[in-house]
Structure formats: C-alpha cells, structure tokens
Amino acid sequence: MNSIRPSMALLTVRSHKTALLCTAGMALLIVLAVVSLFTGKYPLTWQGLAGGDGMQLRVFYTLRLSRTAVGLIGGFALGAAGFVYQTVFRNPLASPDVIGVTSGASAGAAAGILFLSGAAAVTAASFAGALAAMGLALALSALDQSGKQATIVLAGIAVHSLAQTALMCLKLTADPERELASIEYWIMGSLNGISGYSIGGNLLLCAVCVAVLFLLHRQVVLLSAEEGEARMLGVSVGKLRLAVLLVATLAVSAVVSLTGLISFVGLLAPHGARLLTRRNDAGTMLLGGILGGVLLTGADILARSVAATELPVSIFTSLLGAPFLIVLIVRGRKGYE
Amino acid sequence: MNEAHPFFAAIHLSAGYGRQPVLRDISFTLEQGCLAGVLGANGCGKTTLLKAICGILPHAGRCTLQETCLEQLTPRQLARRCGYIPQRSGISIDLSVLEVVLMGFNPQLGLLEHPTPAMREKARRALALTGLAHREKDNYLQLSEGQKQLCILARTLAADSQLLLLDEPESALDFRHRYRILDLLRTWAGKGNGSALVALHDPLLALNCCDQLLVLSDGWVQACLTPGKDALPRIERELAAIYGPVSLQYCTGRNGQRQIVLLKEPD
Q: What are the residues whose beta carbons fall under 8 Å from the beta carbon of A151, sequence distance 6 or more?
C-alpha cells in the first residue's frame, strides 16, 4: 500500500502562473478592502481612527468592517461555489439558480419583509427560503435513484418556478409604496444595511463551506467526467454530487440572505479564473474565489460612491464583469500565432 | 482453463435500454492473461455488454471476477478490480494529460487524499508506455481523439485493474497505433496482470491480436472463436454471418510471423 500524503496538499498551487495570478489578485483584494473601509457617506480618516474618535470607530467597526468582510468573503464564496457548480454540471452557465436557491432566497426575503420586522429577520427568512428551496430540489432529485445530473436540473427548474410563483403572490399582497419597493430593492442586491450584529453566523458558515469545497476539489473534478466514467473511477456519483452541491449551495445561501441577489459574480469569477489559467486545479478555484471577492468589493465601492444615493450592487458587478469577460474571451480566441 | 473457477465469468447476462432488450442471456468465461475481442455488427450489443459487466447499465444475471460477484461491489471496490475505457471519454474541462491519468488512482485514495509521488511516477510510466510521455503537461482537450484514447488507456493501465473493458479503442487510432494499443494490452495480459475484453470493429485486428473472440449477433453469442486454434473455414463461416462472405488466408510477414489476412468477397 502506498503511503498517502495529507490532503492539505490539495491547496498546493503547482502552477507558477496560477500562483502569480493568485498573488496579484490577493494584492488587489487588499487594496480594495482598504478603499472599501474608507468609502461611504460618513467620512473616516486615519487620524480620527487612530485618535480614538468615538463616532468614527463606531462606524468603522459596526458598518464598514462588516460590509467589507461581506464583500470579501461573500464574493470569494460566490466565486468558489460558481466554480463548483460549473464543474459538476459541466455547464459554463451553471449557477446556484440551477437548483433554484436564489429564487427561494428571494421568496424568503419577501416573506420576511411582509410578515417580520427588522433586517436580521429578513436575512433569517431569506436564508430559510434558500435552504427550503435547496432541500426541496435535492429531495425531489433523490426520488430518482439513478442520480442522473438531468434529474437535479429538472428538480431545480421546478423549485425555481414554485419559488417565483410564491414571490409573485407575496408581491401582489405587498403595500406598493413601502413593502413592494423594499422587496424590489432586496432583489436588486445591496450590501447596504449590513452591520456587525447580523453577519457573524453567515460568514462563519460561508467560510466553513468554502473550506470543505477546497478539501473536496479532487472529487469535484472527478464529477466533471460523465456519470458512467466517474462511476468506473470509483466515485459514488449520486451521493457525492448531492453532498458537494449541498455544501456549495449552503455557502451561496449564507451570502445572498445577507446581500440580496448578486448577479454575475458566481458566473464570471470562475470563468475569468479558467480563462486566465486554462486549468481546473485547486489554484484556479482559489483564483476564482479571489476574483469573486475583487468583483463584489469593487462593485460595492462603486455602488456607494458614484451617486448621491446608494445604487444596487448588481448593476456594477455586471458593468465591471461583462467587459472583463469579453476581453478574456477575445484574448482566448486569438488562437494560433 | 479452470472450468470450475474461471478468472472471469458472465452468467446469463441480459440487459437493454428501457423495455428494449439488447443482450439476451449471454454466458461466457475468460481465463487469466487472456485478451478477448468482441466482434459484431453495429447495434449487436458490444457496448451494452461492456456497460453491463462494469455495472453502468442495469442488467439481469451476474458477473464474477476471481469468484467475486461484481454486482455486490461498491463503485470503489468495483473500480479497483475493473477498468473501463468508453468509446469517447466524457472529460470536457481543462485538465492536463497527467491529471487525467492520475484520476485512475481514485479508488486507492480516501475522499480527501491526494495522489502520492509514487502514483505520479507510475502515471508517467503508463504515459511513456502509450507514447504520450512528452504530452503530460498538455491540455487533454487539445489532444487528438486517438491520443485521448491512449491517455485513457494509460489511466487504466496505471490503476492496476484485473479486468480491462475497452469499447472500440481502435476507432480513432491510425493504422500503427491500432496495432500498438492491442500489443500493449497483449503484453499487459501476458504478464499475468489480468484479462482484457475489447469490443472491436476491425475483424483483422481481432483475428491477429486476440486470444479469444466472442462473436455477437442480435444480442446473442453466435460463436466463441480461438483464432490460433480454430480452422479458417470455421472462422470464415462465423464471420460471414456478420460481415457477409469473406475469405481468410495465412500470410507470412518479413519477420517470419504468420498472420491472418481477410478479404471481403462480393455479397
């Protein structure tokens, strides 16, 4: 029997190019984090913080730090989870919506806005909605013992439709002046309103799920083979796919229940990483996470600085992301020179 | 051959898709070190037979390998014993050739474990055996279809399986590599590593490289042939049922090796 190296080697970034890209990405992420801490309606200064200005310290600790943490960790989780979805489904367009989780989160948030009070309650309701959607999709797919990939996708479509119907019903009953506007604003996605009191549990769950996904990276790659081939490589395809999707979806649920729907990050970040490295190793997944963090934090900085009122963050994730993706695609298609 | 305890046995195997039966009550045995070919017209059940043996396709009947019932094994246990090479590998993401070969060690690794340096070395040796040593860092998706087949063969050879199941491995290969892949399998089996069952479209390749031939027709075993021992008229008769009239002759090459030559006669 061969001696087995510990699994931490999974995180070893073998490619020099990938390591370089990850280092550059991390440097950019740190710069954006610093900018994010000092961007907002209430001006913060180094001198004020160092001098112990009470108001500045309160804004820094309760609002800016938590908002920046959600941008960094949430973006990283969306990027890493997107990598997993696209690899497992062998589909470059795969995202958490494949199994209806974002629709469930939206319906949950709408119910929270209508029937509960307070931002923390809306976050909890949204998280519950996301979990319910995920649970229903996975339970429906488990009815088919064959564990086929198409079954999960079909179950996801059914759950997505159900959640959209519930959301429409909730919108119909909402007060158009106040509640309906809140629901629409939530759906557009924003990091506004995040405070240090409500994010701890979500970010911890997010970090644990992302760590598990990295540990399972080799299994994620095995799931990218066709079902019969993966089975003949010793993979219990149905069970492993469910487990991996469960962890990835939990991470996404933890983020979207805090931020509302964030478009494009989970789709673009892993694509960008793959186009840059042309690989699917753990280093590329790490780069996907870093790009996700860069995109969400960068978009959030723009969302609170380009206009007098704060704008939905999804506008900027798309505005920043789309040209970046187009450049990478054009660069990748130059072909033989 | 040990008739009582064959190395591999398929016993009353029936399989199909939905309600459409394709294999009908097939039974046969393989001895250790045997390279067996499966011949038959399109749609006769060659791929179905291989998929049924390796458990990808639900089936009736059972298969035993060294007296272990394959149907009772978990995917991991099955993968340690059997290697399967499909007509086309389903890998569709950017992976290096070496990474694809290393996938073959998965049954020997725990859920969170990673291939060891010894496994990497073994994978490199398997790549060298299939002539892809210089491509180990290349993107698997950028290989030709034939090279992909060789890469998947390297993955299977590296994994120390006892039974190899190959579905038309020669279909995308050039003339030279067709013989090379069969020679590799023959050498592998000849060393006592195990046995290989290979679905083939080329009867000439099958006649000259395989120890045993299973001729399938409409889901049945029409004949079991031993090319080195059976008389040519009998082989001609059995092949004619699939391919129409054929003539077989022995021909001696420049190295003195006697080979069978197949000619297609007018229908």
A: A141, A144
